[in-house]
Specification:
By secondary structure, the chain is an alpha+beta fold. 54% of the residues lie in helices and 15% in strands. The chain has seven helices and six strands; from the N terminus they run αααββααββαββα.
Length: 281
């Protein structure tokens, strides 16, 4: 009997000890958590004070302004500037493809031009629906290029002058059943001469086709260019030696001991007849 009582007392004492120990542990844990919370709050307060100080001094504004300003300004500014100033066809080979297609089908095109006081009225049409679509496509593409100052034929003095004076030119396009009618005018007498010279040149393109595609057009009143010397405008690797335009890597020829690339087959034939005029040794 005594042993039973002793065992019961031992079990009760052990249970009380475990209960008291658990309470002490919980109390201690609660104290640690309270200290951690207080420490975290103090750190947050310090950071908040530092941030308020920076804002007060203008450091944060300067940092964000400088970072965002330089990043956005340099990224967008340089990207757009470079895009607008690219060479020849400004990254649009489809424009040159359309031009070549029109030259190759010049016999299907009819064109009439009337000089007016401050410019020209020109009607360009075809009975072929595919050519009609290409005439319209080319006309609207060139209107957009004029508005955006994206020149073509930068080796041709007349075209260079036209794009340099683009802000003085008004171009209206009216679609007809078989093509387009354009009214191109200017209030500047010299630019009117440029417009009329250009219209005459395009009429020659429509009449003669590929043989005159790369003909150079001098400015109104200028002396004809001397074509007896070197005429090359490109390196034959990335730019066509005849036009200076980007090359088509599928159009090439072995000339003067190397592979030469061209923008079109017509240019290749021109150079093959007289390579010394367009290629340097």
């Amino acid at each position: 009997m005594r042993n039973v009582i002793k065992n019961c007392l031992f079990i009760v004492a052990l249970a009380l000890s475990m209960i008291l120990g658990t309470q002490a542990f919980a109390q201690q844990q609660h104290q640690h958590e309270a200290q951690d919370t207080k420490s975290t709050q103090q750190q947050a307060d310090k950071k908040s004070d530092a941030m308020m100080c920076c804002m007060k001094d203008g450091k944060m504004g300067q940092g964000m302004g400088k970072g965002m300003g330089q990043g956005m300004g340099q990224g967008q500014g340089k990207g757009q500037g470079k895009g607008m100033m690219m060479g020849g066809m400004d990254g649009r080979p489809e424009d040159m493809q359309t031009i070549h297609m029109l030259f190759e089908n010049n016999t299907k095109i009819t064109r009439s031009v009337r000089n007016i006081k401050n410019g020209v009225e020109a009607l360009t049409e075809s009975d072929d629906p595919k050519i009609q679509a290409k005439i319209a496509e080319h006309t609207y593409a060139m209107k957009k290029r004029l508005e955006n100052r994206q020149p073509i034929r930068q080796w041709d003095p007349l075209y260079v002058a036209l794009f340099e004076n683009a802000d003085k030119i008004k171009l209206e396009v009216v679609q007809t059943k078989k093509g387009v009618k354009i009214i191109e005018t200017s209030n500047d007498p010299y630019v009117v001469k440029l417009i009329q010279s250009h219209a005459a040149g395009v009429s020659e393109f429509a009449k003669e086709g590929m043989p005159v595609m790369h003909k150079r057009h001098e400015l109104p009143g200028a002396e004809p260019a001397d074509n007896s010397g070197f005429l090359g405008k490109g390196d034959g690797i990335t730019t066509c030696p005849v036009t200076g335009e980007p090359v088509n890597k599928e159009v090439k020829a072995e000339l003067m001991g190397r592979t030469v690339y061209f923008c079109c087959e017509n240019c290749r034939e021109v150079v093959k007849k007289n390579p010394e005029k367009y290629l340097k040794p």
